[in-house]
Protein 1
Amino acid sequence: TKEFDALKLHTLAAGAAVSLAFAQGGASTHRLSAVTLAGSAAGCLLALPGLRAWGAETCLVLVATLGLLAGALFADGRARAAIAALAALSLALLPAAPRLFPIEPFPSLGKIVIPRDDPDSPRVFSRWGATGRIDIHELRDVRLRLPAPARLMLVSQDGSAPTFLLRLEEPDPRRADFTENLPFAYAHWLRPGGDTLVIGAGG
């Protein structure tokens, strides 16, 4: 997308840094290769807690900024100062990364893509985890015939594995008696009061 065109220079700087490092490595090429592989492995491990803490958009800008700083190590004079200034600007933009570089599910077969600002299906919750992003939309334009007033929510993981949630407006648990006749309640018929394990956003 056009938003990510701004990060192309960051990627170019990172690639140039690796190429220049190998070009100047001489007999130490094998050590540089080991360091490169170790850095790649560390990046894979750090990505898991990074996604949970900051989200993919912020992690993307942070990694791009590290690429710029790597390129500055091999630059001279004015070029180094310009790259360092661009890296500082990138760091300053980190808090705004989710708004500047939004990541949405790619429209494809089986994907549920609901615009962030859809008035009929507003996004009421969104959070990144180690394996993807969980979104919850309220489906305001869907009417349900239930014995108790309820709000219908749609949970998706990266635009897939859709799960519907009913949020009863009244806290009285007796208003949820109709759920006893659903297929999902069979396990509770067999073992009333047993513990429940939910696996994945898709149930």
Protein 2
Amino acid sequence: VNLVIRLIPEKADGKDSEKKLVYLNQRLENQPNLAISATMKELHRMGEIAGKNYNLSIEAFFDGDENKVDKVKQLESTVDYLSDSITKVMIELRGLDLHDKDLVQLGKLHHTIIDLERISDRSEDIAEFALLQMDVGQSMTKDAIDDLTSLTNKVNDIIQLSLDIFSTLDQSKMDSIRQLRRDIEFDKLACMDRHIVRLQKQE
């Protein structure tokens, strides 16, 4: 198996958004014990890029900035590349002499790839809606902006906290995740209700 991995650096270099693997980029045939650790580091890096793309898409939406929309699309392309590349490496990892628990962990990490890619996909959707909003010249009321700002900040909080838990394996923070999820769901419904009221009042 012609696998790739580096003896795992603690942090990626400054070129963290480049279309390349940082932690999975040298041979691993003789170092299967590093497989899971390296994969998790690469996935955390992918998650940071996806989180960055979410924040950039929100900025593009609120600022009406076409340059930021273009950057979102570029980062989405990077996330897609990382998703495909990490998945290919994980398939090859299954050919190594791994413990059963590591094979189970690889299966769980595959779901993580899907979740992280979904964040970046939704970010691209937000950026594309920002373009549509610019094209039709729509504007929002201050109340609408305040509602969406509060909601999007909480979404960013849950993304960042999830990445922190993924990196540190600190399960004690799961209660905070669950509370944030409840808050986001409540705020989403409240935002929709207030938006309907504003439409009815033609605000």
Protein 3
Amino acid sequence: TSRLTAEHRLAALPSGAFYTPQWSADSTTVYFVGVNGALDSVSAGGGDAKVLVPDGVSYPAIAPAGDRLAYFRDGKVEVMTLADSTTADLAVASQVSALGWAGDQPLWATDGGIFKAVQNGPAQQTAVPQGATVLSIAPDGAHAVFQAGTDLNGADLTTSRSRPPRRRASACRGGAPGGPRWTDPTSRGSSGAQPHGQAQHRP
């Protein structure tokens, strides 16, 4: 087995919620949420961190092309163009639980559903059953992983089916008008749905 060599410290991490660091397209820069929720960047080779956004950032997600970084801040989904650090408000949102990209389109999940931005504001792509939390949205925008009770479930949004990664996980019944019906294992009922979680915790 091999061992990590030439490891070096990049930055201090805050306690509490921790979000997966994001790599630049050329693998030379790491973007991460630092102290006070600041969006910081640091060279992969080491050096001083640069503050891009001063506070309040969560769920950073870099675009597949590596040119933009989306994140949640102050009740809004924002997108930063990395070449010049300009930002644009994409949509108002609340209770965000996951944020990702499907091609060049940011997608985000809340307790009310999975959304994308359109010209007139956010458009819901799928509903989320009561008591379930979307943890991650797939890069194809057609699949998601969600938590319901103690189960981790996978949902295929294009074919109106869910697939539990674990055998005892709850199922999602297809065939409901407008999309799948996802069973919530914490209740006896199910909620209708119409057709991408990165938070961890540090002590």
Protein 4
Amino acid sequence: NIHVLLLQETPVRKDNNKPYAHPSYIGFSKEDPETTTKTVTYVRKDWASQIEPIKKENDCIEIQIHIRRQALSLINYHNRQMKNGKMSLQKYRNLFPKSKHSTLVLGDSNLHSRLWDSDFLNELDDLVRETDYEKAAQVMLKQASKRDYELLNRPNKYTRIAKTGYQNPAVIDLGWANSRMRQQIRKFHTTDKFEKSDHLPI
């Protein structure tokens, strides 16, 4: 019953450095022999009449799906922290495209803000880190609002659980929708029926 899967930090096959294939799904990712994990979007083969890849980068995959004469754009992203300490997406301009179609943006933001993750920030005993988190989150919020995207997450409804004693639950997996998409969403929630990751499926 799952039509689309948006995955981040997906392990790749050791023999060809490509994501694992599934007979019922088409996978979209960037061809890059240097990466050991990928951002991958899987779409069920018998669901859409047409699937068009728009953008394939290591940390951002955009596809357009045509279903019953309607186009749907899906953007799957992973805002990973790089070796220099910076985030891989940073300015987020390409994350929120102007679109006449229903568009959903979903992924691992690795960002904290009091707008969606105040419980996590309340546990921080470091005002410098909190300020840095908030500054980065405000950049994403600004770009989203410019293009009329709204956040779908409920405040403090965590999406990453604490696997160790020194971690705190957090809201870092964020979903955004433009005005056309918001009209079609009935529910947006996590499930705890998956125990192989510290991130909860949305």
